[in-house]
Specification:
Growth Hormone, Chain: A; 3 domains; 20 helices
């Protein structure tokens, strides 16, 4: 809660702008780093698995710490955690820019992920506490959503230009002035707030989540190199299964769990988490493979490669508001059906990707995929929280956000592993990607089917039962 003194002095639109700085910085960082992957690979002579770890070190840490960071923000203060996250993200960006090798860069990217976990979810919590009137809050969230598209549009072009004309290390410098400005402005204008009743910290649950994700990702990425039947890989899969099993056993018996398993009794909520994994796994795979294809296979410069992905980002900006209106007027089913169809169609356009695939075909696939990705975000959160008690809406949204990051992590790991293994066996890079596009097509089909199923009478009844339990 915000004190009466702080409420009187608060300037909501300025607070919104400060929070949007964190989203701009984190959103740009994802696409900027993707454009720079070939340059990083060449300088450090990195393998595909090295690039996978470069991306997954970030998403793994974010996925593991999102709920923990939210709980800490509610307990010790949202502004304090936001400023801490901004300081850590800014410092780790500086460290990334001076990394001497791929291993150290991966470590510094993990530190960036730790900082990022304290930024956007906490910033959203700040916004929802500042804008108490429903219409003003909806408008603020709309601005927040538009900033996502803006960050994704700026990222590839800015990252391409910096990588080409200054060097890949400069892509991390852009975070420094933004991060410093946001820290100073947050200290001056963002009021401190805490939850009236904060959740207890579930340290064991947090450790089990991290252990399960890391061991699974390690097994997927390192499997082709170490051998799927080797001791380390089989052991990693076993650790992941054991961690998840222990987490389920432990969380069901905890009074205030990190992950309340009762949520998954709701068909719409479970559908939303699976949809998030499917949608963001395709997103992670899409960015990784297209970045490498455009620069390594087609020979485009980083700037031209960034411009080629601009249609995807522009469709995100244009279609995200349409999704919001569709959800408001007709519920989430139309948006999820459109998202699934667009993912399916764009993936099918790329299943025969070759070194000479016409550029118009590529750009058309990027446009279709961008439209699908744009309309899936709002329905994920809306489906997850709809019908839940207001006191539990924040937890439900946090689990949905975690599912997004888990999906991105797995998408990068699986896409890189499949493509790298097939490429190592003599196939061209373009040919090696073909199974990944088929997997993406299957994910698009799953999004559409779950979007339909989550709105049946049976599904809605399951949410009412769960809401009664949670209340």
């Amino acid at each position: 809660m915000i004190s009466i003194k702080d409420q009187a002095a608060v300037r909501p639109n300025l607070v919104l702008g400060i929070c949007c700085l964190s989203l701009l910085m984190v959103g740009m960082d994802v696409t900027i780093v993707n454009v720079a992957l070939p340059a990083i690979q060449h300088e450090f002579h990195a393998t595909v698995s090295g690039l996978q770890w470069l991306m997954d070190a970030y998403t793994l840490v974010v996925a593991s710490l999102l709920m923990f960071s939210g709980a800490m923000a509610d307990r010790i203060g949202r502004r304090r955690v936001f400023q801490t996250g901004m300081a850590l993200f800014t410092l780790s960006s500086l460290l990334c820019s001076v990394a001497p090798g791929i291993a150290s860069l991966v470590v510094f990217r993990a530190l960036q992920g730790m900082g990022a976990s304290m930024l956007n979810p906490v910033a959203m919590s700040i916004i929802t506490n500042i804008f108490e009137e429903p219409k003003a809050r909806a408008k603020a969230i709309g601005v927040w959503g538009a900033m996502v598209g803006l960050a994704m549009a700026i990222g590839p072009v800015l990252g391409g230009a910096l990588t080409q004309f200054v060097g890949w290390r400069s892509i991390f410098w852009i975070n420094l002035p933004i991060g410093i400005a946001a820290m100073i402005l947050a200290g001056r204008f963002v009021p401190e707030s805490k939850a009236a009743k904060a959740r207890a910290v579930d340290l064991l649950g947090q450790i089990l989540v991290f252990l399960g994700l890391v061991s699974l990702t390690y097994a997927i990425i390192q499997g082709p190199r170490a051998g799927w039947g080797s001791g380390p890989i089989e052991g990693s899969f076993a650790v992941s299964v054991a961690a998840v099993g222990t987490l389920v056993f432990y969380e069901r018996r905890r009074v205030d769990p990190l992950l309340d398993l009762r949520f998954f009794g709701s068909v719409p909520f479970s559908s939303a988490t699976v949809i998030a994994v499917c949608a963001f796994s395709t997103f992670g795979a899409f960015l990784l493979l297209n970045t490498l294809y455009l620069q390594e296979v087609r020979g485009f410069s980083p700037l031209i490669a960034g411009l080629c992905t601009l249609p995807f980002a522009l469709m995100t900006i244009l279609c995200a508001p349409i999704s919001g209106r569709l959800v408001g007027a007709y519920g989430t089913r139309p948006s999820l059906l459109l998202a699934g169809l667009a993912t399916l169609v764009s993936s099918l356009l790329l299943v025969r990707l070759a070194a000479d695939t016409p550029i118009p075909v590529l750009l058309f696939a990027y446009v279709i995929y961008g439209a699908g990705f744009a309309v899936v975000n709002i329905p994920i959160t809306h489906t997850a929280v709809s019908g839940m008690p207001k006191s539990q809406a924040g937890v439900a949204a946090a689990i949905a956000s975690t599912s997004r990051q888990v999906g991105a992590t797995l998408g990068i790991a699986v896409a890189g592993t499949i493509t790298g293994a097939r490429h190592a066996h003599g196939l061209s890079f373009a040919q090696a990607t073909h199974p990944v596009w088929w997997i993406m097509a299957a994910s698009g089909t799953a999004i559409g089917l779950l979007g339909w199923a989550s709105h049946t009478a049976w599904a809605k009844e399951s949410t009412r039962r769960v809401a009664h339990l949670l209340a």
